[in-house]
Amino acid sequence: MVIPYEQKDTILHVENLCVSYGDRIILQNVNMVERDTIREGKTQGQVIAVLGRSGRGKSTLFRALTGLEKPSSGKVLIPDFNKVAANGKQPAKLVQEGDVGFVNQKYTLFRHKTVYEALWFAMRKSGFSKAEKEDEIMHYLKEWGLEKHKDQYPNFLSGGQRQRTAILEQLLSSGYYMVLDEPFSGLDIGNIMSVKKSFDLISQRHDLNTIIFSTHDIELAVELADSIYILGYPPDDKGQVLASGTMLKHFDLKELGLAWQDGFTESHHDCVQEIKEIMLRA
Ligand SMILES: Nc1ncnc2c1ncn2[C@@H]1O[C@H](COP(=O)(O)OP(=O)(O)O)[C@@H](O)[C@H]1O
Ligand SMILES: [Mg+2]
To answer: 167 and 234: one domain?
Structure first.
């Protein structure tokens, strides 16, 4: 069932992105366009999944999306919210380090900071007063079920609590964008649920909030995302596989009537199957 929605301004524009290390081309002509999704009567952020087998360049793409990796050619554009909108459109800018929160595959928390201290540090550039910062942090700690753990150090947290703290740190220190590289790997079912919940909390907080994540769990991607990209090695004219990652296919789950549904239907399973077949070929 297609849930009604509208698409507004472009919020992410990746154009012919190429990344090379020396003479090895890792990513070739990657294109992505995402727009702000509006649902009537509901705050609806964007949840975008990037799938691909190991070595296809997911982590490299994510470093480029966060401005940590300079493209060898092509570009990553996001709206420039510091500029005044013209004709209802926000001018675009090249993404820069700090614009996008990044929870790395091997995410690290400050070992010598408690949860509260880490979040306080994350808000250092927020421009909020001391009292506002305290309020904001306490609000999130409560909402995210971390209040009891606020004075604990990372070593004493469960995997899910640590992951949520890492996500919150990035949320508080950056703008609307959040990139998470395999945020579910190594977590047990309970912790997976709690990270899923944090995705909901982020996307229901602001229309512009945009989560981009990678995972090897195709079912989970189809369940959570409203847009899925498959990164893989494309076959060349002679049917040989080139070892540079590119986008093989995009699934718009909103359009397919698979986004924001309560249950996992037959159509969701079909989508999973189709994705598996594409990935196995590339
Ligand atoms: N800093 C680097 N220098 C050289 N090659 C790299 C570097 N980082 C990644 N690669 C190579 O780029 C390819 C894609 O890696 P990566 O982006 O980590 O893929 P994925 O996250 O999909 O597993 C791999 O072949 C990897 O060996
Ligand atoms: Mg990776």
So the answer is: no
The residue whose CA is least distant from atom 8 of ligand 1 is 60
Contact at 8 Å (CB) between 32 and 248? no
Structural domain of residue 16, as residue ranges? 6-99+176-191+206-281
Which pLDDT belongs to residue 229?
A: 98
Average pLDDT, rounded, for the chain: 93
Judged by average pLDDT, the poorest of 63-77, 149-163, 200-214 is 149-163
Q: Are residues 186 and 61 in the same domain?
A: yes
Closest ligand 1 atom number to CA of residue 61: 17
56 and 23 share a domain? yes
**Its pTM surpasses 0.90:** yes
Q: Edge to edge, what strands does the sheet with 46-51 contain?
A: 100-103, 177-180, 210-214, 46-51, 227-232, 246-252
pLDDT grade for 107, boundaries at 50, 70 and 90: low
Residue nearest to atom 13 of ligand 1 (CA): 55
